[in-house]
Design brief:
Layout lengths: L5 E8 L7 H4 L19 H4 L22 E3 L12 H9 L3 E4 L4 H9 L3 E4 L2 H13 L4 E5 L4 E3 L5 E3 L4 H9 L3 H6 L2 H10 L8
Parallel strand pairs: 1-2, 2-3, 3-4
Antiparallel strand pairs: 1-5, 5-6, 6-7
């Protein structure tokens, strides 16, 4: 998993509340067995028209948002079913972070397992970012996970809070497998003592 320390990126906004996982990645794509390649299906029913062409009314199809790596929505982002594919799709599309005034719990937890940082700001702070994006094409934010701070080039900043364990995992790029492999020597010693094959073989 790619470490997350300090990230500066273009911001895309979705002026929507209650964006659910069924819209983030529709059910027909869940049968894929890979964890990659889901970005092409992100917000599929919103991004594309019935004939397969881009929906010009959908936010992420705006030319100004091409290459955005920070998504800013409203409250209760990621509600609905518990599919981890929703985070896979966001990350594969290129988003390193999602900012909202609140998140659904399971989606929030899944983000940390996949290197995508969910940041909870106040409704007023989220409003500020939406206004800045509307007023300033190419608006960027800098996210400093070490300092737990979001800032822009005008001097505005906002603090957020991540629990220490999750913060450490993101800073070091450790998912569940990475955490387990940190104990590889102890696991190997245990298996050797029991006459088992070494870990990883």
């Amino acid at each position: 998993m790619q470490p997350f320390t300090v990230h500066t990126g273009l911001v895309a906004t979705m002026d929507r509340s209650n964006v659910d996982t069924d819209q983030i990645i529709p059910k027909q794509f869940l049968k894929r067995i890979e964890r990659t390649g889901f970005g092409q299906y992100l917000f599929f029913d919103w991004r594309f028209q019935p004939d397969g062409s881009d929906n010009p009314e959908f936010e992420l199809n705006r030319a100004a948002f091409k290459g955005a790596s920070i998504l800013v929505a409203r409250q209760n982002f990621g509600n609905g079913s518990s599919r981890e594919h929703a985070v896979w799709a966001l990350a594969d599309f290129g988003f390193r972070a999602v900012i909202a005034s609140s998140f659904a719990d399971i989606f929030f937890n899944n983000c940390f397992k996949n290197g995508c940082l969910p940041i909870t700001l106040t409704a007023e702070e989220v409003d500020y970012v939406h206004r800045q994006v509307a007023a300033h094409p190419g608006y960027q934010l800098t996210i400093d996970l070490r300092d737990e701070r979001v800032s822009d080039s005008s001097g505005w900043s906002a603090k957020f809070s991540i629990d220490d364990f999750r913060r450490m995992c993101l800073l070091e790029g450790l998912d569940d497998i990475g955490l387990t492999l940190q104990q590889a020597d102890k696991i190997a010693a245990y298996e050797a003592a029991r006459g088992m094959s070494p870990v990883g073989q």
